[in-house]
Amino acid sequence: MRLQSRALVWRAIHLPQRRTLCGKSKEYDIVIVGGGLVGASLCAGLVQSQLPCKIALVEPNLQRLLSNSKEKSGEAVPLRTSTINPASQQWLKKLKIWELLDSQEVAAFARMKVWDSTSGSSLVFHASEVGMESLGFVVANDDLLRGCYQRLQRSLQSTQSQIDFFDSGVDDFHWYFSQSGFTKWPRLVLKDQNELHGRVVVAADGSNSTTRKSANIPWFSHYYQQRAVVLTVRTEKLHRTAWQRFLSTGPIALLPMAGVNISNVVWSTTELEASILCSASKETLVKELNNAFLGAVNLHKDSDTEEYPPSISEILRGPASFPLYLGHASEYVKERLVLVGDAAHSVHPLAGQGVNLGFADAQCLVELFENAWMTGRDFGELSLLLQYQRKRLPKNLLMLAALHSLETFFSFQFGPVSFIRGLGMSLLGGLIPAKKAIIDFASGKI
Ligand SMILES: Cc1cc2nc3c(=O)[nH]c(=O)nc-3n(C[C@H](O)[C@H](O)[C@H](O)COP(=O)(O)OP(=O)(O)OC[C@H]3O[C@@H](n4cnc5c(N)ncnc54)[C@H](O)[C@@H]3O)c2cc1C
Questions:
Q1: Ligand 1, atom 2, residue with closest C-alpha
Q2: Where do the FAD-binding domain residues begin and end (predicted)?
């Protein structure tokens, strides 16, 4: 069947329910609540797949995101970055978002060194050891978001989908869950008084998701009693390694950014240390950072750049700090509702996986909706949405458990545990198949 006629049939079967809609009441096939990285990439994915459907994107910071041009953000170096794994890069390439990032915005790294401050043991991952070009890419969140919204704006002319943007938050949700499987469409009342009815509502509104809460989906949460202190720094030498040192208080990472000798630091530490760091002078911070990465090592000009991270010479942006939680929803779907990204799961940033899991959710959902359209199914059908849950929940849970175990394992300072940890890291260092398995897992291949 040709695409045009397939679209007509799909519309005829799934015509919006007839009801009298008052002035500002509108009907959509898909309502996405939250236009952060995951919601915006999902919207770009739906638009690119040319589904002939009506989509609403609801985001309270939409105006800022749509007009987020490089020129407006000025000269300041970015503060928040994400480590993008190769699977997410492929997805962003497919959406033609990756091509909107220029070489000044993406820093690839082909090497990663992880070491333990207690035992001194280390583990080095090389992309070449496992036949890859890079292990990942560090990109500023603002640049990624700009790419998503530019893609959306450029696609508006050439898509079969119709997108309406709502620069507002949701004030009130009305769900009509029932056992019969034929629930009425949910009704969302926005802060700007618009009323949206959606065949399916996608909650992409972050870990504090009001959409999830309004639908009474239980959320398991664990506070690490830690905050991530984030800074952008200048290093004395250029480096292309992602460094991560496990300190007794938590991990600290130095990630190469695009630009000359610029890196991003994510230092997960106790609340007390985070507040001390955030109120310290820049000179003190530089000292503290070098001490955290290098300890007693005194770097000389000719120090081995493979062995130690470069020393930090200047704070360019930050610090800012963020509380660290592990969180997971007990279910990802209900009739006419689906959770994606941090609204469904929130992980410790120690392996830079959060948004990568969210992109994988979005990709899975786009494929599901494409199949539903081809087979004439209603996007909001629970049995359809359960397919998404069956695919994504076990994978996300596995990553969540792995990251939590890693965090816990490295937080033990008890002698025998740190000895075993050191031994394990040394043994693993020589086992290429084991390292390949770890890299595949972190790259989103498994
Ligand atoms: C310090 C730190 C470092 C990190 N580093 C990495 C990394 O290197 N790699 C990685 O993969 N992940 C990383 N993460 C995790 C990553 O930032 C998150 O997983 C990701 O941002 C989640 O994206 P999201 O779109 O699901 O949610 P969010 O980014 O939280 O976006 C939610 C959106 O919903 C909107 N919203 C909220 N409420 C409403 C409402 N009621 N109505 C409408 N809209 C609403 C918000 O305005 C926001 O735009 C890190 C996290 C932290 C804290």
A1: 349
A2: 193-394
